[in-house]
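User: Sequence in, structure out. Go.
Assistant: Echoing your sequence, followed by the structure tokens.
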Amino acid sequence: MTRKASKPDAAMHPAVPLTTTPTTTIPSVFDQFETDIVEQESGRWFYNVGLGMSVKLRRYTSRVALTNMARLQQVYRSFRDEAGNLAEGKADELLAEHLATAVITDWSGAAFRNRDGSDMPFTPETAKMLMMRLPELRNMIVMIASSVDNYRIRTREDVEKN
């Protein structure tokens, strides 16, 4: 016998207003979720993500990034065990390669230098090395590139403020 779902009891779940004052306006669904497709696909600059560090990142879910991840999943398929898990260290390597070849498109800033002081220009190989050696930087790149807030369409006022 199947039970019909009942409506929530109004006494148990009182309606909570979305606004606290009548003058508060609720942004449209477009204002809340519309993103800049061009910048998602080609990359957006994020300034001062670390001391002396700016990075240009595609969105983690851009078409370019998703296509790249599907390709890398095939490449790394041979490193999976019977349960489908990647061998030790291979998951980090896959993620580092993915970020270096599809998400990070450029970088700038005084922090991007070798320990001897020489410049470290962006290349996918250098980016992969940094993603492997610096897991906290890798995690930060993933967080920035994954956030919908970072790829919203900017209004003229937002751009002029910056």
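User: And one key feature?
Assistant: The chain has one domain: 37-161.
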